[in-house]
Amino acid sequence: MSWLDFFRRGATAPVARERLQILLSHERAAARGEPDLLAKLREEILAVVTKHVTVDQEKVEISMDRGATVSTLEINVEIPNPSGMLLAGI
Amino acid sequence: MAKVLVVTSGKGGVGKTTSTAALGAALAQAGQKVAVIDFDVGLRNLDLVMGAERRVVFDLVNVVQGVAKLSQALIRDKRLDTLWLLPASQTRDKDALTEEGIAAIIKEMRPNYDWVICDSPAGIERGATLAMRFADIAVIVTNPEVSSVRDSDRIIGLLDSKTEKAEKGQRVEKHVLITRYDPQRAARGEMLNIEDVLEILSTPLLGIIPESEEVLRASNIGSPVTLSNATSAPARAYLDAARRLKGDDVPMHIPTDRKGLFDKLFGRRAA
What we know:
Chain A is α+β, with helices and mostly antiparallel strands. Chain A folds into two domains: 34 residues, no CATH class; 55 residues, no CATH class. Chain A has two helices and three strands; from the N terminus they run ααβββ. Chain B has a single domain, classed as Rossmann fold (3-Layer(aba) Sandwich). Chain B is globular, with a radius of gyration of 18 Å. Chains A and B meet through helix 1 and strand 1 of A and helix 11 of B.
């Protein structure tokens, strides 16, 4: 970012640059064949849950947010009542 | 029951993805329930233009292959709660899509949306023909420039022969959307006339989107231009185009050069 940006109020290029850096760091890691930690966690967590209860695929909500330093993985599984538990929010 | 709309062009770089995002958002802003699907497998960008690139969990190929449910792959827009995105896969190749798979997805989506908008990849290969395959309506994005008009003509030929509607003897409703229209160059007679483009393509006009820095700003921040600056010239043109798609009678506005004398003398900006 140059000192000129200070004067360009509302410049959107720095936002574009940051978005691309985050996106490309994840995509390059995937292209190098590095394991996608978020995807692996997602699969393994769901595997553990389905080992114990029958889960309706439609009742599984997954959301991710891939960030520069921190990413989040949110899995909401609706578990049927007879098996005891109410809601597992991981 | 959704209308299935394909945004297509043949030529690359004319503004398909920008237009998909803007029209999708404009329809959702008007209260319609909209899903936009990126068909550009291997080179997805609709997620980026819509600002959802960090939130992709599953994609179109995952749904076609049965790895994920449609509901799990759809990403709800953070700004408009009636707008959804189904991203393309970035890693697979385009042969991962099958006609049966796409047919099943479109069939599942039709009852749940007012509009399903398919963002076609450039070219006339599999991805492009699958994107248009189940369309009821086509928006042909065209720049007022010879190679773009030629490619649009080619795409119109495909819409009239290779779509499911065409094979049933019906017609896909076709509209031309002129993008990157530069009023200054038009005034100097340096750009193809809109009347000429429409006459050559024998297809009605949906709207004229002026070339604008607002479109670049919008993609920089990952927002459809109708949301990032709803009163800007390109946003108003897209909002009008969306109303025409809904069947409203909206007078056509031809963008004019409204720059002041100072800009004319000193501020001639490269298009």
